[in-house]
TrEMBL record:
It comes from the Eukaryota. The keyword Transmembrane applies. InterPro entries: DUF6533. The keyword Disulfide bond does not apply. The lineage of its organism: Eukaryota, Fungi, Dikarya, Basidiomycota, Agaricomycotina. Keywords: Membrane, Transmembrane, Transmembrane helix. This is DUF6533 domain-containing protein. Residues 36-80 form the DUF6533 domain.
Amino acid sequence: MTSNQARPLISLNMSFAFTLPQTFIHLLDDVLLVKYFHVASLALMVYDYLLTLPDEIQYIWTARRTSSGGMTLYLLTRYLNFFDATILTIFLFDRRLSTQPNTCSSVYQATAWFELVGITVAEVILFLRTYAIWGQSRKILYFIIFSTLLMIPCAVVIKKDISTLEFSPSPFPNIIPCVPGGRKSILYIDYVLVLGVEFVIILLTAWIGIKQCKGETK
C-alpha cells in the first residue's frame, strides 16, 4: 500500500475518533492508565515474590514448627495478591467480556470483594505489628478494634457500589472489555478510610521509633 492510499484511512480514523463522546474518550484514557499501573504493579509483585521466595522456603515451608495465626495471615496476604491480580487482569484485558455485560458485573464484584479481604488481612498484620512495638498498649488495642470495625462501612460501600453499577457491550473490546454505566463508582470512600487508618499507623510507628532512638542515645 502506498502512502497516498494510507492517508484516507488515517484521516478516517482520526475523524471517527473525534466523533466519539468526550466522556467516552476520557473513559478510554482512564482505562489505559489503569492498565499501565496494573501491569507495573504485577511486575513489582512478581519481582518481590522471587526476591523473598528463598526466605519463605527456609522459614515457612521447611521450618520445623507448627502453624500459627501469624503464619496463616502471612500466607493469606502473600498469595491472595496473586488471586486478586488474576481476577483484575481478566476484568481489564479479556476481550470476550465485551459481549457479556453480566459476566463483567460478576468479575467486577469478585474483584471488589476479594480485594476487601486482602486489604483486611494486610491491615490486621499492620495492627498486630503496631500493637507489638507499642508493648501491647491498651490504648493501641482500642485503636485496633476501632480500625477493624471500619471494615464494616467499607463492606457496605462495596455492596452499594456493585449493586447499582451496570455494564454495557463495549465498542472497543481490545481496549476496554467492560464498559461501566454513566454512574461514578463510590469505592473511593473505601480508599479514603484505609488511607486514613494507615496514616495513623505510620505516625504511631514513627513516634515509637523516634522515642526508642532518643532512649538509646541518652
